[in-house]
Each structure stands twice: as C-alpha cells, then as structure tokens.
Amino acid sequence: MSGITLPTLSVGEYGLVYNMLSFALAAMIGSLLFFVLARDLVSPKYRMALILSAIVVLVAGYHYFRIFESWTSAYTLSNGQFVASGEPFNDGYRYMDWLLTVPLLVAELVAVLTLPKEKSGSLTARLVLAAVLMIVLGYPGETSTDIATRAIWGFLSTLPFVYILWILWGELNKAAGTQSPYVQILLRNTRLLLLGTWGFYPIVYLLPMLGISGSAALVGVQVGYSIADVLAKCGYGVMIFMIARAKMAAEEKVK
User: What mean pLDDT is predicted for residues 74-91?
Assistant: First the structure.
C-alpha cells in the first residue's frame, strides 16, 4: 500500500491490526522452534519436509517483522485516533513473502510423500512454477486502486491456482493411493487446509471490489491475511509433521 493514502483509524481498529501482526509473528517464531526441534523425531527421508516447513515460517516471520515495523511507523496517535504519519505502509512485504513461501508449501507436500525421484521432481517443478505465477500475476492487481485492473489480474492469478488444485486432487490423489488409510485421511485434510486457507486470500483480495473501502478494507485485509498465513504456514507445517509420523508408524508395522 505504499503510495496509497492511509485512512484514519480508531484506537480499536489500529490495535486489532497491531495485535494480529504481533500474533502472526509470534506464531511463526514458535513454529520455527517446533519444526527445528521436531526434525529428529522423523526419519531422515522425511526431514526435508520438516526443513522446508522451518524455512517457510522463518521467511514469513522475517516479513511479518518488517510489516509490523512498517505498520507502527505509518501511524501516529492524534486526538484519540490514529492518523497517517506520512511514512508509507509497505504491504508489499506480503507478496515478497508469498513469492518465496508458497512454492515451498507445495514442495513440502510432495517431499513428505517420498515419491520416486522422477515423479516427485516433475510434480514439484510444475507446482512451484504455478505457485510463482499465481503470486506474480496477483501483485499488480493488489497494488492497483483501479477496480478493473484489479479484476483482470485477479482472474489471471486464479488460473495457476486452479491448476495447482487440479494437481493436488488429481495426480497427488493417485500418488497417495498406496498410503495407509490414516495417512490418506491426513493427506486429504492437509489438502483441504490448503484449499481453505488459499481460498481465503481471494476473498480478502476482493474486498475493495465489493465496495468495502477505507478503514474497513485496510483492517479486513490485514487481519484476514494474517489469519490465513498462520493457518497456511504454521498449521500446514504441523500437518506435514503428522503425516511424516503417521507414515513412520505404518512402516514400522510392516517390518
């Protein structure tokens, strides 16, 4: 939102965003510690998935720190309200974060399945490329104040998103068919979590197009994105860990 005039906020509105950004930052830090410590609880072939989870929340935590700093400097308290300080609020950090973390999120799911090298390499490459396109195509619309421009880029960004879902529910569903029933349930829930959280981003993206503007749009976007990020990164990483543990347990029964 650099360069966009910031609306005046009530103490409650400013505090809600402040607290949500703080919560998201704390969640990323806590998740990082968990994934690092949990690394030794999984066998070597599943550790790459945990390493990717740790990298995701580390990158996200750094960007939330920068967003938090930018938020606190963009506003100042005046006559019982928070008004723009003159410093820009740089929400572009979110897209820099997603450009790095979203491809890693899809790579985590492929990594924990431990598919044959040829199969996993092809799936990972296609998912990562689609994830990068989804983020890159969405950015021009996010930074535009023109509704038509926002709609066009939002539509283009949706195309690789649909392709990712097609792979997750098509090809990965076939790949998961050889897993134990419990692992299959966890994989289904993980993909549903991915769909639910990623599906939340377009809703927040659409707020200005739905006539929601000013302080309501600003607060809604920041709170919405923060909640979605915690679920899509921290919660998703925990699900990946659970899948790895479940696969290890299934393998032990076979021995």
Answer: 92
pLDDT > 70? residue 254: no
> Which of 22-26, 114-118, 157-161, 230-234 bottoms out in mean pLDDT, i.e. has the lowest?
114-118
- Entry pTM: 0.88
State what percent of residues in the chain have pLDDT above 90: 42
Please tell me the predicted confidence (pLDDT) of residue 113. Answer: 78
What are the residue ranges spanned by the domains of the chain? 11-250
C-alpha to C-alpha distance for 101 and 209, rounded to whole angstroms: 26
CATH superfamily of 11-250: Rhodopsin 7-helix transmembrane proteins (1.20.1070.10)
